[in-house]
Design a protein that fits this description.
Layout: H1 2-17, H2 21-46
Helix pairs in contact: 1-2
């Protein structure tokens, strides 16, 4: 989980430093994907029966 949080921080820094609009859009998509992964991890930890990993 620490790795995901570290990666989000790095991507946010890259987003603000990047002058290229198209690259910024891709960075934003990556941030959204990692955010979704964190939400799934949070849900998985809170469930009595963890989600199946496929």
């Amino acid at each position: 989980m620490e790795l995901v949080v570290h990666e989000i921080k790095r991507l946010v820094e890259d987003y603000y430093k990047c002058p290229n609009f198209l690259i910024k859009e891709q960075i934003l998509k990556d941030i959204e994907l990692l955010k979704d992964a964190l939400l799934l991890l949070k849900i998985d930890f809170e469930l009595d029966t963890p989600l199946k990993h496929t």
